Every structure is written in C-alpha cells, then in structure tokens.
C-alpha cells in the first residue's frame, strides 16, 4: 500500500494548526445498541470554527468571496459584485464549502485563477487533505463536521445494512439513529448560536438544538441558486445571520458564481472561508478486474454474503461459518496465481485491518473486509462489459484519494503551505491569536 507522506512534503510552522488532541479522543466503540451515541466532546474541541475567527468589521459584499472558489476560467470572471454595505457583525461567521470528488491536483490541470488567488493569499495543505477510510462521500463529509472516524460516527459506507435490525441505510436516510456524534451545526445550535447548511450530508435530520429548516438534497438545484441562498443570509439583521454555514457541491467541474478576486471589498474583508473536498479519484478500467466467482475452487462466495463490492469489499457470511476459515480460503485462492489479478486483493478479518484505517470498532462494519490495490475493482462475475471510468473508496494512503484544503482569512497565514493531515483533525484545529 502507498505511504501517507508525499516525498516532497516538509514540516513547517503555520498560524492555523491542525493536530489531534493529546491523547487522541475516540468515543467508545459503537456497540449493538443502535440508539447509543458517543459522548459529546468538550466545547474546547468542538467549537473549532467559532475559534477560527475574531469579531471584526465584516464587509457583506465579501460574502460573495466564497463564490470565487468554484473553478472559474479566466474568461468567465465577472467584473461586478453584489453591492452590500459594511456592517459590524455581532458574532463571527465561518463558511465551510465542499466540492465532492475534488482530487488534489485538479487545480493544476486547468486554469483556475480564483482558486490560485485563494491559495496565494491563504493557507493550503501543500500535498492535499487526507480523507478517512473508506474514501466515500458520506463517511467523509460526516467525519469533517464531527471529527470522528466512520466506525464512531456510524456512517460506515454510502450504503449498508444494520446486522441487528436488518434495516438499510442509504444516502436518503435521515433518521438520527444512523448519524452519531455531534456535527458542528448541532454544536453551534447547542450553544445558542445560529447555523445553516445547504445539502451537507447528515444535516437534514433534526437533533439536539438543531432545528434550522434544511432542504432535502436535490442534485438538480442549480449551483448558482445554492450560492444565492447562502448569500441572502447576509441580508438578514446582524443578529440573525448564521455564525456557521456550509455549502455542498456534488460536481467539481461546475462553474458557479464568479467575482473578481482582486475586488477590494473582498480582499480587505475579515472573513474566514474553508474549502475542502471529501476524497479524490483514480482511473479504473476493465483490465483491472477481480471476480469472486473465480475463487470457486477454494470457496463459494454467494452474492447474498456481499455487502459491497468495490473498491471496499465487505462480506458478512452466515453465523454458522467460521470467519477465519473464509478469510484463509479466499486469500489462498487470491495468492494461488490462478485467479486473474488475485494478487491485487487481500482479505482481512476487520479486527486485523491496519490500525491506521480505524475501521473495526463498529458492529455495523461487516466482519470481513477486502482491500484492493489502486485502480482495481471487484465484481461477482465477468459480465464481459468493457468499461473505463473513475472510482474512489480505496485505501486513504493512496495519493490519488487526497483532496484539497484551503483556508482564507485573517487567522490563516498568507501563502503558507502546511503538511497533509486527515480531515478528522479539522475539528481539533485552533488559532494562535497572538501571531
């Protein structure tokens, strides 16, 4: 498997520090009580985004600043911006923006002057943000806002089944029982402040003090409309403007609202913006396939055992099967040289997975997990369909799974490059206000 550290990475000092608590905080493992919930973290570690900003004069026209994050080409830049007067806010405001599937390096492959400006005038994870495993949309978005690994916040995959109740989770499941931990919008609300979210995974459910009206996800809502909705919050009376806002885009290629990055009302504003992605992407093709049916001479793996195929192979055999025996027979076949591409898949009991993955301490995680090498896919049988494309969900040690972290604002050092870090540590970041 690939190493976390890119060969060009170097240690450096920076204003905005990302670090795990000492010692690391992990709530108790998710047990077979589906209603159990990890204990709430102290305010000092959960209110990351509140500590990121100082209450200073804020230009409301600067709210448009986050719109220039979205992948503009030079000829698409607008020369106008929304005109809003200066306003002294009664509280800090933080904008957290996610672009789904924005692989680290995309910004180097096309002309993105607005992102370039943000990087030049803010702080960037020089070699990308490391997602949690599995490198999938829902587990990672919820890790970003809870500071928990999927085994602890409960969203262990985009789709999965509860082995106790038989209920199925999918990306339209909004019942609180699935979503554990405390996301930032709930933390903000629990402390008497206002928060707003726009399509961020997990924000549709009401929990704790969180009761902000939130639309259910609709991929057909134009990106411009999403930006306009968030900007309209800045037309509210000062004490009604949310302290914390999120905005989600499912497409890293879309051009959203554009505003010139050299607009003085933007560059001189004291606003903090954080732009992240949830995972990267790697190319896949039909030649990199592994078929479970090819293991039939060692063990039969029926489709009903398989919870997910690729890139995260997850298997839950019936109770009367020896899990260790299933793993041994699968690995024997895969290493035999008689299974096409078998050497690129290794199967584990979940408790034997590399500890850095943090992917064992939940009853929701199937007992047998297979890890495939970068770009390979697992299917039940050869369908003869010739296809190439892209995928994610692989080991988060692969560089291709990295995404972006860009922070802009007074407490982010200008033009600073920081080492890569896992997205769960955003929750534990803090500012050195004395710098």
TrEMBL record:
SUPFAM superfamilies: Alkaline phosphatase-like. Keywords: Membrane, Transmembrane, Transmembrane helix. Residues 1-12 have a biased composition (Basic and acidic residues). The keyword Transmembrane helix applies. The keyword Lyase does not apply. Gene3D superfamilies: 3.30.1360.180, Alkaline Phosphatase, subunit A (3.40.720.10). Residues 1-39 are annotated as: Disordered. Residues 20-31 have a biased composition (Pro residues). The chain crosses the membrane at residues 47-71. GO terms for molecular function: hydrolase activity. PANTHER family: BIS(5'-ADENOSYL)-TRIPHOSPHATASE (PTHR10151:SF120), ECTONUCLEOTIDE PYROPHOSPHATASE/PHOSPHODIESTERASE (PTHR10151). This is Uncharacterized protein. It comes from Erythranthe guttata (Yellow monkey flower).
